[in-house]
Amino acid sequence: MPRLRAEGPRRRYPHQIGVGTVLISPLQKRYVADVLRTARLSYGPYSAALERKFAEAHARRFAVFCNSGTSALQVAVDALRNTYRWKPGDEVLVPAATFIATSNVVLMAGLKPVFVDIDPCYYEIDPAQIERHITRRTRAIMPVHLFGQPCDMRPILEIARRRRLHVLEDSCEAMFVKYRGAPVGSWGEIACFSTYAAHLLTTGVGGLACTNDKDLAVLLKSLCNHGRDGIYTSIDDDKRLRGAAMLRVVERRFSFVRQGYSYRATELEAALGLAQLKTWRETIAERRRNAAYLTNGLRDLEDRVQLPAIRPHTEHAFMMYPIVLRPGAGSKRDLVFFLEDRNVETRDAFPLLSQPFYRRLFGPLAARYPVAQWVTQNGFYVGCHPGLTRRELDFIIEQMHAFFRR
């Protein structure tokens, strides 16, 4: 790595300014204490309530709570593959820049991810690039709502309708926000969310798969429960039954009708999530305020860096704050090192095709996707979460300016 030029005494923040945080409220502690008091750790009333209320917040009829966003995506792909009898090698379109789980779940289902370049302003799948990648084996489009902002769904849905393709939303980085009046996650046959640490709703580990299709919801829950018969996926499913109804459940409750996974979450995670559902509006509002503060403080650097933009008719949850260096502005590696050395945590802006595993699997694909390659080489993000203080935001702004004054 090139040596940085001398710039006088280095100013280092006394602790790391992280890209994410976990804030535990008194209500969350009370709900968790209640779970521990009842000693009911498996699927129970908190999980059921979280599923119901989360689905309502995203205009869906059903939600299935599981142990991660990746698990939600995996069972969603499996559910669609089984329902529509996709064959090995059938294709799913995914963006060329995203977290690796998006395309990994396609591979794990025996399907082929086909990459589509991204939009240079909002960094999500570019609708104008989709149709050139469609073949006779294309079965679905998986738009990924990155950084907290929904994709441009109107043209994506039109292409899917016209070309008879299914839509699976990867919404692991966006919750509660709307595009043209409809909430994120309300467009695909299935939409998947993550509640991992530092996400918009935080349960430590966790994910949700949402749908309006009752049969898909039953299949999703079965797949998360080892492929168990949908008649019994919770210890409450045989309560209050009598006679023939009770016998029917008893005979089938240890019946496994398909290959599945052990992807269940616990009541502890559900309790954390359910409490946060009461304050999501305040949480998103604080993220937006912090993002606006960063943008205002960095606006004079816009000739050097591209700051996050909000698409017209679209809301932004700002799960994180992406920054992309403009051509000739310098080295991302130098800037990231400069910030990290001063205790400002950063993350790369989702390199995918340059990952060692993908280079071995697909070869040198990155150059075929110039926008994704540009963002990979020049993009990163910092935090804008509710745990940041005004002093910490000021420090991020100051250090960005300090780097370009060198």
Please name the defining characteristics of this protein.
406 residues, alpha/beta, Aspartate Aminotransferase, domain 1, 2 domains, 7-stranded mixed sheet, 4-stranded antiparallel sheet, 14 helices, globular, disordered N terminus
Which CATH class of the largest domain applies here? Alpha Beta
The helix/strand class is alpha/beta
The number of distinct β-strands equals 13
Give the CATH architecture of the largest domain.
Answer: 3-Layer(aba) Sandwich
Question: Might you state the CATH topology name of the largest domain?
Answer: Aspartate Aminotransferase, domain 2
Query: Would you identify the CATH H-level superfamily of the largest domain?
Result: Type I PLP-dependent aspartate aminotransferase-like (Major domain)
Give the topology string: H per helix, E per strand.
HHEHEHEHEHEEEEEHHHHEEHEHHEH
The radius of gyration is 22 Å
Largest sheet: 7 strands, mixed
Average pLDDT reading: 95
Question: How would you explain this protein's 3D organization?
Answer:
This protein has 406 residues and is an alpha/beta fold. It folds into two domains: 26-276, Aspartate Aminotransferase, domain 2 (3-Layer(aba) Sandwich); 280-405, Aspartate Aminotransferase, domain 1. Helices cover 38% and strands 13% of the residues. It contains 14 helices and 13 strands. The chain has helices spanning 26-38, 45-57, 69-84, 101-108, 127-130, 153-163, 214-224, 243-252, 267-276, 280-298, 332-340, 356-362, 370-378, 390-405; strands at residues 62-66, 91-95, 112-116, 138-141, 166-170, 178-179, 182-183, 190-194, 207-211, 305-306, 321-325, 347-348, 379-382. The strands form three sheets. Strands 1-9-8-5-4-2-3 form a seven-stranded mixed sheet, with helices on both faces. Strands 10-11-13-12 form a four-stranded antiparallel sheet. It has a two-stranded antiparallel sheet with strand order 6-7. Helix 1 runs antiparallel to helix 9, helix 2 (45-57) packs parallel to helix 9 and helix 3 packs across helix 7 (214-224). 45% of the residues are buried. Residues 1-8 have low confidence and may be disordered.
